[in-house]
Write a structure and sequence with these properties.
Order of helices and strands of chain A: HHEHEEHEEEHEEHEEHE
Number of helices of chain D: 13
Distance between the termini of chain A: 72 Å
Strand content of chain A: 15-25%
Oligomer: heteropentamer
Helix content of chain A: 10-25%
Largest sheet of chain D: 2 strands, antiparallel
Structural class of chain D: mainly alpha
Radius of gyration of chain D: 22 Å
CATH class of the largest domain in chain A: Alpha Beta
Structural class of chain A: alpha+beta
Shape of chain D: globular
Order of helices and strands of chain D: HHHHHHHHHHHHHEE
Number of strands of chain A: 11
Number of domains of chain D: 1
CATH topology of the largest domain in chain A: Alpha-Beta Plaits
CATH architecture of the largest domain in chain A: 2-Layer Sandwich
Number of domains of chain A: 2
Chains: A alpha+beta (about 260), B alpha/beta (about 160), C mainly alpha (about 210), D mainly alpha (about 375), E alpha+beta (about 375)
Strand content of chain D: under 5%
Largest interface: A-E, 67 and 83 residues
Chain lengths: ~260, ~160, ~210, ~375, ~375
């Protein structure tokens, strides 16, 4: 053999009797798999079934399901409609634009409750949405079987996601801590007109409109026409969804570090 | 190898066509040059500085002009070097590097079709990734990918 | 602890969110319950050496009667020997290969990949379809002999997936060829592929001509 | 009653059917039906049907056997969900292919395209008409059975090449040419190996060859011939490591690329048919056919059809070795294959012929024993 | 037979992906080849320009689908340089662990496909079986088998589970035994040597001229490995050797890849030990808000107009399983990268196809291309 390799463990596997070595290896494997091959008989045995993992996968000595932690598998979402606050964070965090917020019954008519509707034909199962969900109501379960015969069956309405939630599948237990130095919603005071849009639409009700004193009219200066209120954000309740920024008609709210 | 070393070798060869050598983290330096001296620079970099291995050729569309950059590796210095030149958007062409480094062949084909920078005297300037006859240059900033209705999903309607 | 750290243990339930149960459920996953009862005959074949074919045939004959034996026979043969076309488009092709690997072994269901489209009766579109390959895909589909089926495996084949906004990607292979079964997933697990194949078998079983 | 043979069984069956039919018919028709000519002709038909059915069943069983064995070699299960342990899998495949369209490419030559696979299968099936599977279970006294079998066996490359050429596909054509080249190249060592057996046995009749192995099986002293025969058989059967004509990696499906539906089923079926012929020939020529060594207690052989049973067991074990080879060896290249064929196998075959001649001269060889005296 | 062109691809068992090799043959001898790429061109570089920095990671898994974590690592390194962020040490070790496991997984996938090309069917299944173990391990901490979305700018998404070290060691022990079996099946067979020795020879000079990197370059005797020559993450802190062979043929590439897997096991034993004893944060502190979150809720145009970030250019090079991958990320002070450019090693390796295919036989094309280990996702991007 012309080839030399610098190796710690030299592969001393030269042929014996032309083909004896591979045939012996195959025969050894044959004997090993005669009783229980590594195959998982899929519709009847499932890797995510903890009983199967313990009894067969580990006990048989075969390399089936070694190193499985199934709780954090990213499969179909589970949505708890009851705790959803319609913050839209899942929609905005979705890199594949597969989440749409649809109205579900339960909100007041002025302020409809919106929950995510997920199109699994577009979703890439990256988990950004469940990471982004501030309430933990959108999580990912271990369910992965999603074959349908109609394309439209792949769109899961909030109610359907809620049904998945009710089945109590193992759900992703990893919740990411919020960063320590989160930005806050800051107000560009001169631009604000006190319209209450931000406080009205805040999903966590963490914005309160506080009265501010109406300034005295000076000579040659016009008092701007506005409501004399100003939003104050409670940072500990804020989930940083940015709804207020987007609804602000004057673009006077912005992200920044609170001094 | 430091940027100064690069300047010392390249300045006499290129003269005023060498626009400068900047420091670049993790690299020997970033050489900016005028496209007129491209071939001289490639030869100098390969032969005098021993960057024998051209890794990457790419283009950036800066709207008003375009930039072509080359990354080369030297086995003796164990370092990369970044060469870049600006070409005007209206007349985007530069001399090919495939005469100096054969590996530039496919990279330049790709850059030509995606960023619309022509490489003069290229031996085989055909479409590589896009279909034959594809008339667009997708990596130009003027080329938009999203359809409006797709963006619709993303806009906020509260 | 500053910065972002991941808490492995389930977090204490927040006051707003008391009902989220993150404990591992002791029941079988829902998917198991959903998929098994689809055909009772298949359930009898749970173990390799349980003779189920006799019951299967008897019930088949009893249900359909002698006069209607031929169509079920052909449907039975059609659904039990699906030969997919052996080709790999993108990421899903790796999971496609894994489904043929030792652990999942799609050959258990009689699924054997054939390289020639003439001999294949199932095209598994396992990956992103670009416009450049679109006409070749159609050619391959037309070269396949009737009866033939198409499975769109993964999100790229279903609807373009993460790349559907790109300039070169066909947003869904159903724009090119008729699709029988869509499998969502990015990529779908090999089990999900097998589930899709079982779904297709169910479709063929219910087929009437 | 003497031992049941294939012919006697079919004759009895024919006789029974004829008399049963005749009992309900008017006397003129009864005489016609129960006349010896009609019964004999009917017996021949039954005879052929039995052979055909047994061959087809065995071939399908052989495919199942390969799939299951290969599965275990590969640490998986193989077909298991259709029928008991997947036994019905190949029937499902067959039915499906039977129903499936056969697409003829526009530029293909229709005559060759349809004639090739059909002739390929029919000729291979015909071999089974003359192979004995137990004492008495054969077509009777043909003195040149082996020669005839090998002659029919050697037709195949012609038909493969015809069908490959007619399908107007570059891959098919390359596969067909490889197939023809390798089959012709390995025809010579195959015959040399056979000749050494024939020299020892002194006959081309397979019955005689089996009879001659009553003291010792030929694989011991003729181990060289066995190796040459198995290698050449692998090449003739187009199995790994010599499956170049349908090398999936470079030629898509080899010479059957353009075939789908029933004609593809013909090809697939005939491949295994030829594998069955190969295994049967190995058993007949080197492993004593349906006989067992004399030290085996007679209880193993005294029951009816024991000969057929042991013959089948041996055949399937031999085929299992072929599967084992398939599971563990890579494919060789065309030029290497041909070089091995002409440069190694033919000299080895000649040596084995020489060994066979010595064996005949010596009559008795330790530790095997003596050839039976005629 | 006269000369003729045949198309090997896009649907052909040899291609391992979606590309077309046009071959001009005379009988069985290859006279000329012309690779035709682009069948899987998905415009990843263009889509990246419209995505948040962390969202590009989801594309990286799909760029090279057999070495997703290595490509995530590549992109994240370039982005961190462009955004001036330093990840914590534990995150770097986790990334190294990921990359080495990914190297093993990718090489096993190569092994499975390569042996299938020379007609060995059994090891394909062994390979897929053993690769699933590595994927199981990935799934235990990333939550997916192939598309992980695990690394983030500034660190990694979550810490490893407490059971990880034990399971990783189990997998490594199992794989050590299996690699011996792989060698028996290939090197132990004289047919393998007949097929693969002196095949597809590409000498060191040609390799360098055509930009060939990775195991192909190392099999030609050039000792170049970015993990040694230009250490990123904490590769300077671990002890390993660079696998080099001097045959420059298919067998040499086989040997180099097998040896690389053994060296990866050696690295992994060190990093797993380190990870066991050094708990700590896995995400950098004091990231900007829009990056600090592992998700990107507010990264859309229009909401951040009043912020300005530091501009920067990032370049990274990673010894990916297939060779040297490079990324060039231009940060223009917005939430999206202005331009992302990737250099795929196989892109260069395939561009030299004419050098190592012409003159051999048609039957040699599959093993040679198998030894190149094409992953078309990263070539076409």
């Amino acid at each position: 053999m012309a080839t030399e390799i610098t190796a710690t463990e030299k592969p001393n596997q030269n042929p014996i009797l032309w083909v004896a070595r591979p045939m012996a290896t195959a025969a050894r494997q044959f004997a090993k798999s005669l009783f229980r091959p590594s195959t998982i008989v899929y519709p009847y045995e499932r890797l995510e079934d903890p009983e199967f993992r313990e009894k067969v996968a580990v006990a048989s000595g075969k390399p089936i399901g070694l190193g499985q932690v199934w709780d954090n598998y990213r499969g179909v979402h589970a949505l708890n409609i009851a705790t959803c606050i319609s913050c839209n964070l899942c929609q905005f965090s979705c890199p594949d634009l597969c989440i749409e917020m649809v109205t579900v019954p339960g909100g007041d008519p002025k302020h409809p409750k919106k929950c995510p509707e997920i199109d699994y034909g577009k979703c890439s199962y990256c988990g950004f949405c469940s990471d982004a969900c501030p309430e933990g109501c959108l999580t990912m379960t271990t369910r992965y079987e999603l074959s349908v015969t109609k394309r439209s069956d792949m769109v899961y309405s909030p109610q359907r996601l809620n049904e998945v939630f009710k089945t109590k599948l193992p759900m992703n237990p990893i919740r990411l801590a919020r960063p320590a130095n989160e930005d806050s919603i800051l107000l560009d005071v001169p631009l604000c007109i006190g319209c209450n849009a931000c406080a009205r639409d805040c999903p966590t009700q963490c914005i309160t409109m506080l009265d501010i004193p109406k300034p005295e009219a000076k000579a040659g200066e016009k008092i701007p026409k506005r409501i004399w209120k100003e939003p104050v954000v409670n940072d500990s309740d804020c989930v940083r969804c940015g709804t207020c920024i987007s609804v602000c008609p004057k673009e006077c709210l912005f992200w920044g570090t609170r001094k | 190898m430091q940027p100064d070393d690069l300047t010392r070798v390249l300045a006499p060869k290129l003269g005023e066509n060498l626009l400068g050598v900047e420091a670049f983290e993790g690299m020997a330096g970033r050489v900016r040059f005028r496209r007129e001296a491209a071939l001289d620079l490639f030869r100098a970099v390969r032969d005098d500085l021993s960057f024998a291995h051209l890794s990457m050729v790419g283009g950036i569309d800066w709207v008003d002009h375009r930039e072509v950059f080359y990354v080369a590796w030297s086995d003796s210095a164990r370092q990369y070097v970044l060469l870049s030149t600006d070409v005007p958007a209206t007349d985007a062409h530069v001399e090919t590097a495939s005469a100096v480094w054969p590996s530039a062949n496919w990279h330049e084909r790709e850059t030509w079709e995606l960023v619309d920078i022509t490489f003069d005297h290229h031996p085989d300037l055909r479409h590589l990734l896009t279909p034959d006859g594809y008339a667009f240059h997708p990596l130009l900033r003027s080329f938009k990918i999203h359809e409006p209705e797709e963006l619709e999903v993303k806009t906020r309607h509260v | 602890m500053g910065g972002l750290t991941a808490a492995q243990a389930p977090p204490a339930p927040s006051p707003r969110n008391p009902t989220v149960d993150l404990q591992l459920s002791n029941e079988l996953p829902m998917a198991t319950q959903a998929a098994v009862p689809f055909i009772e005959i298949e359930a009898l074949r749970a173990k390799e050496f349980i003779p189920a074919s006799k019951e299967a045939l008897t019930s088949l004959i009893a249900e359909q009667g002698q006069a209607k034996l031929i169509r079920p026979m052909f449907n039975w043969s059609g659904r039990n020997s699906l030969f997919p076309l052996h080709w790999g488009l993108a990421c899903c092709a790796i999971e496609f290969a894994a489904a043929f690997g030792a652990r999942w072994d799609a050959e258990r269901f009689g699924v054997v990949a054939r390289s020639s489209p003439r001999q294949a009766d199932l095209m598994i579109v396992n990956g992103t379809v670009t416009w450049k390959v679109a006409h070749k895909l159609i050619t391959l589909y037309e070269q396949m002999a009737e009866p033939k089926w198409v499975i769109a495996m993964g999100n790229c084949a279903t609807g373009g997936g993460p790349f559907r906004t790109a300039y070169s990607v066909v947003p869904g292979v159903d724009k090119l060829v008729p699709v029988d079964v869509y499998i969502a997933g990015c990529p779908p697990r090999p089990e999900a592929l097998l589930d899709g194949i079982l779904k297709l078998e169910q479709l063929i079983r219910e087929r009437k001509e | 009653m003497s031992q049941a043979t294939l012919y006697s069984v079919s004759y009895d069956l024919s006789n029974t059917i004829a008399s049963a039919l005749g009992s309900v018919l008017p006397s003129g028709a009864r005489d016609l039906i129960t006349s010896s000519g009609v019964v004999t002709g009917f017996a021949v038909v039954i005879f052929a049907v039995i052979i055909l059915a047994a061959t087809m069943l065995n071939t399908i069983l052989l495919i199942w056997w390969e799939r299951k064995l290969l599965g275990r070699f590969m640490d998986r299960r193989g077909a298991m969900h259709v029928g008991f342990a997947g036994l019905l899998q190949n029937f499902a495949d067959g039915f499906k292919l039977f129903r499936k369209d056969t697409v003829k490419p526009r530029e293909a030559d229709p005559l060759g395209f349809y004639f090739g696979p059909t002739a390929y299968m029919i000729t291979s099936l015909a071999i089974f008409g003359i192979l004995p599977i137990s004492s008495g279970w054969d077509t009777g006294a043909l003195p040149l059975t082996l020669l005839l079998a090998l002659a029919i066996f050697a037709f195949a490359p012609l038909f493969i090449f015809v069908s490959a050429w007619s399908s107007n596909n570059k891959y098919s054509l390359m596969g067909g040419m490889r197939s023809a080249a390798q089959m012709i190249a390995y025809e010579v060592p195959l015959l040399l190996a056979v000749v050494s057996v024939v020299i020892v046995a002194g006959s081309f009749d397979l019955n005689t060859i089996v009879y001659e192995q009553q003291n010792y099986w030929f694989w011991g002293p003729l181990i060289l011939a066995l190796i040459v025969f198995v290698a050449a058989m692998l090449a003739e059967m187009e199995r790994i490591p010599f499956d170049l004509p349908e090398a999936e990696a470079e030629l898509v499906e080899g010479w059957n690329t353009e075939y789908g539906g029933m004609f593809f089923a013909f090809f697939m079926f005939t491949d295994y048919l030829r594998a069955l012929v190969g295994s049967v020939l190995v058993v007949l020529l080197f492993f004593g056919g349906w006989t067992l060594p004399s030290w085996v207690p007679s209880v193993a052989t005294s029951w009816p059809l024991a000969g057929i049973f042991w013959f089948m067991v041996k055949t399937y074990i031999v085929f299992g070795v072929f599967v084992w080879i398939r599971a563990s060896l890579p494919r060789v290249r065309t030029d290497q294959l041909l070089r091995v064929g002409w440069n190694r196998m033919i000299p080895l075959g000649l040596v084995s012929v020489f060994v066979a001649a010595l064996l005949v001269v010596a009559k008795c060889v330790w530790p095997f024993g003596c050839l039976p005296t005629p | 037979m006269s000369e003729m062109w045949i198309n090997m691809g896009p649907q052909h068992p040899m291609t391992h992906g979606l590309w077309n090799l046009r071959v001009r043959i005379d009988g069985e001898v290859v006279l000329d080849v012309d690779p035709e790429m682009g069948y899987l061109h998905r415009g990843i570089e263009k889509i990246s320009e419209d995505r948040h920095y962390n969202e590009v990671v989801t594309l990286m898994d799909r760029t090279c689908y057999v070495a997703g974590l290595a490509w995530e690592h590549l992109y994240i390194l370039a982005s961190e340089q462009a955004l001036h962020i330093t990840p914590p040490e534990r995150a770097q070790y986790i990334r190294m662990t990921c990359e080495e496991f990914q190297r093993i997984g990718s090489h096993i996938m190569w092994y499975a496909a390569f042996v299938n090309d020379i007609g060995l069917m059994t090891p394909f299944l062994y390979g897929m079986r053993d690769r699933d173990l590595v994927l199981d391990l990935f799934q235990s901490f990333t939550g997916a088998r192939m598309t992980y979305e695990y690394m983030r700018v500034g660190g990694v998404r979550n810490d490893l589970p407490p059971t990880f070290t034990d399971q990783a060691r189990k997998v490594l022990d199992w794989l050590t035994d299996r690699f011996r079996e792989y060698d028996q099946l290939c090197l132990g067979s004289s047919i393998f040597h007949k097929r693969c020795d002196h095949l597809g020879v590409l000498k060191a000079n040609d390799c360098i001229a055509h930009g060939v990197t990775g195991p192909m370059l190392r099999s030609a005797g050039v000792k170049r490995d970015l993990r040694k020559d230009r250490p990123y993450a904490r590769y300077d802190a671990v002890d390993f050797d660079v696998a080099v062979a001097d045959g420059a043929d298919v067998t040499a590439r086989y040997l180099v890849r097998m040896e690389e897997m053994r060296q990866s096991i050696r690295i992994l034993r060190q990093t797993v030990d380190w990870l066991e004893h050094h708990p700590g944060p896995v995400m950098a502190e004091h990231l900007p808000r829009w990056l600090g979150a592992p998700y990107a809720p507010v990264g859309r145009e229009g909401y951040l107009l009043k912020r300005n970030y530091a501009k920067g250019v990032g370049f990274s090079a990673v010894e990916e399983p297939h060779g040297e991958a490079q990324a060039y990320v231009v940060n223009e002070g917005t939430e999206h990268p202005y331009r992302v450019k990737f250099r795929s090693p196989i892109f260069a390796n395939l561009s030299a196809a004419r050098q190592y295919l012409v003159g051999y036989r048609v039957a040699d094309i599959p093993p040679i291309m198998g030894s190149v280990d094409p992953c078309i996702g990263e070539v076409d991007r």
